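Second attempt. The first submission of HAD hydrolase-like protein had a stray character pasted in from the spreadsheet, which I only caught after the job came back as garbage. Lesson logged: always re-copy from the clean sequence file. Corrected sequence (147 aa) follows.
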Amino acid sequence: MLTCPWSCVVWDLDGTLLERGSPTPVDGVEAVLAAWSEAGVEMAVATSASTALARRVVDELGWSAWFSHVAGTGPGVVGKDEVLVEALLGLGRVLPDGAVGAAMIGDAPADVAAARRHGLTAVGVTWSGTPADVLGGADLIWSSPPS
Ligand SMILES: [Mg+2]
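This time the job returned cleanly.
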């Protein structure tokens, strides 16, 4: 069940991998990250937090080995759209071809919109309380991490 259908996955951080507004991992996500990393799935983080903060959080959680790139906001990079492009570039994926086989997983309408705008599969997650109907543009809606 933990088999990943994509070769590349870009994850939102707050409300997706972490409980909303908290540095605590969502139950079940670490097993997914470990399994997909082991399977060779390229993974990155794309967050609206600053890149420096995001990298510190990922490092403190001991997650650095799972992500080839952690992209956040900073000079010249504002908004989830731009952060997603940065995350893909950090994996060596240049759009539009870089979107092939890639998914973006997030809990906000902006995550879904960015994924769709750039041609990635959009996965909306509701486990932090986002109603599914505001993630209506998503290709998939997940109510819990895959297990
Ligand atoms: Mg989020």
